[in-house]
Amino acid sequence: xxxxxxxxxxxxxxxxxxxxxxxxxxxxxxxxxxxxxxxxxxxxxxxxxxxxxxxxxxxxxxxxxxxxxxxxxxxxxxxxxxxxxxxxxxxxxxxxxxxxxxxxxxxxxxxxxxxxxxxxxxxxxxxxxxxxxxxxxxxxxxxxxxxxxxxxxxxxxxxxxxxxxxxxxxxxxxxxxxxxxxxxxxxxxxxxxxxxxxxxxxxxxxxxxxxxxxx
Amino acid sequence: xxxxxxxxxxxxxxxxxxxxxxxxxxxxxxxxxxxxxxxxxxxxxxxxxxxxxxxxxxxxxxxxxxxxxxxxxxxxxxxxxxxxxxxxxxxxxxxxxxxxxxxxxxxxxxxxxxxxxxxxxxxxxxxxxxxxxxxxxxxxxxxxxxxxxxxxxxxxxxxxxxxxxxxxxxxxxxxxxxxxxxxxxxxxxxxxxxxxxxxxxxxxxxxxxxxxxxx
Lengths: 215, 215
Description:
By secondary structure, chain A is of the alpha/beta class. The first copy, chain A, has helices spanning 6-19, 88-93, 109-117, 139-150, 167-178, 183-194, 200-208, and strands at residues 27-32, 35-43, 71-74, 77-80, 98-101, 121-124, 157-160. Chain A has one domain (6-214): Protein tyrosine phosphatase superfamily (Protein-Tyrosine Phosphatase, Chain A), CATH 3.90.190. The two termini of chain A are 21 Å apart. Chains A and B meet through helix 1, strand 2, strand 3, helix 4 and helix 6 of A and helix 1, strand 2, strand 3, helix 4 and helix 6 of B.
């Protein structure tokens, strides 16, 4: 898993300050010793209880429907099946910056509208879906998708295909390989989402994937 | 899910700066206008690629073994089965501050040593485990555990019981209720981890749990 490093969280703070319509905290850019730096000032004490417990999650109290097979993969990375309009309120609560879409079909109009209204960028890496058990996953496509997923500037990000089992499962499995997870754990996680539809070809792909670099 | 708010990430930055053995960035405490504030300076540009892709995750390249049934629940909250020493390298990579332990049995000595070496605080909320399908989960205990889980000062935090299915499943299900997830999604997530061992009593507990406040 990604360490919750200071740099990671500061990068997200920077993203949020850039995106934010209301600048909650003071920030200033200064030049000092040839380097540009940004100083952020925040006032003690910071809120300690999650907004969940203070009841500020959803003002109108509506129930939220995560897409089927939804899960958090790591800081700023989520996975799911293809979301539809019933899931939009939930997706809105994630404050997504990007979606990584792994099907070759054109993105539906009402989904595109949702993305546009919420300033979410779409990255499409089309991989043919199939019911066949022994179809090869295209490695180059996975590598290109991984680069997008690993780029913190795109976070928070959602990965999805159609059912969130195979194509998404392979991409996340290769991410786990880069995170040095054991194959046992990678397959175990893959199985949780693929269940009875687990494919030998996906697992073989993940086992053979060279995670030493993204070049 | 928790929104990745500026306050949340700054709280984690503050936690990390307090914990950090090496102060990576300058910080100073100043008094101004009666308020104590901390200013953090960071230098542009911040790293954009996750440390994963730059190969800095694990210096000696060892494979990591997450505990069985491991998953990320939300920012700073993880779940799993009972970790043992094979999982310690992986747990170390999470930079945990706290563990929420849901069994009544005493914590094993070698696990306590690992916690002590890594300055991880243990919160124990003992709930009897059982093979019986219709045993009631104690609501007060779950409420007390939830308060700890929701307190950002305890993050990053790992919730575990013995197998990471029932007691952990109930606690996470009640958290999801507070996050306004639909019961359909809550049960679906519970089933992913409990699989063939899903219990009606757990699901009934989660359905009846009053998530409107933690009082």
